[in-house]
Write a structure and sequence with these properties.
The protein is of the alpha+beta class. It is built from 13 helices and twelve strands. Among the domains are: about 60 residues, MutS, DNA mismatch repair protein, domain I (3-Layer(aba) Sandwich), CATH 3.40.1170.60; about 55 residues, Orthogonal Bundle (DNA polymerase, domain 1), CATH 1.10.150.20; about 100 residues, Dna Ligase, domain 1, CATH 3.30.1490.100. Helices cover about 35% and strands about 20% of the residues.
Amino acid sequence: MDASPPLLRKIIHVDMDAFYASVEQRDDLSLRGLPIAVGGGGPRGVVATCSYEARTFGVRSAMPGARARRLCPNLIFVKPRFEVYRAVSGQVREIFSRFTDIVQPLSLDEAYLDVTVNKPGIASATQVAEEIRRMIREETGLTASAGVSYNKLIAKLASDQNKPDGVCVVRPNEGPAFIAAMPVRRIHGVGPVTAKRMQALGIETGADLRARDMRFLQAHFGSAADYYYRAARGEDDRPVREREGRKSVSVEDTFFDDLVEEAALVAEIERIAASLWTRIEKAQAWGRTVVLKVKFADFRIITRSRSFSTPVRSPDKLAQAGRELLVAQLPLRMGARLLGLGVHNLEGEEENAAQGGQLALGL
């Protein structure tokens, strides 16, 4: 007797639109329609998020505040109110719980939901996504965008297609073509450095990536080759994982040219610290231990750490700890191929862990 083919998951990725900035514009009518940035506008300030009005000037999340001001001289900086964002995020997650318990929060403003089998018994995942968006709008006064598909990779890409306040549905027979048209820089797991490497190899789109065989990908991307091979075909079998405390938050970057000079190394660790702080604030994941990672030109890796009695809650303190850990290693024995910074021993808003997904009907 032949086994029945496995039925596909129904995955929704919900992403609140310009979340922090939208909350501020909702609560302060004088900010509506204006270019605003939530975060710090000082010399070391970083944009946590910005309104769509600011994005038209090229302002983006994780951008240094000084650069954001140059791009948009009329930009209004608003101090973050994380207690309010947490409260609204709680409202949104309560809405999710009306449909499924298989929810994987990525941060305060986005999450994956497995609605293959959902509490109201709605057959259409698209209808579930529309109901969730309607409830969010009615109960919080905010908008959310959603991607609906048969796996996490495509659902997350789809949620960004029709922003703000939109839905994009990608059915199983449409997945390969959807990925084929996607710039590789947008594919989850392809960072800026890898995207540049791919571009140098003539790989600009998902179609270009799919045209390369496994041997080529292994030669150029090592252990990541299998993921890229499958992603280019719209394949992703990762389940939506229910929430569990994460162990750390980190950011790292690989360089085309190995860094040797102190000024260049310090500038990079400060940039990485600013990006890490944005990620920490977004996840509300405060840590007591700051960890430096250095990968040398010969691929040897060292880590150094410093622990504090209380969680690091200041971007300046984080950057200072990163600089001091790095400077203590100078001069380096050889050039640095990679620098990374992270925080461990976390408290606060977390995510993820294990729960398999179920299988069922079409979207």
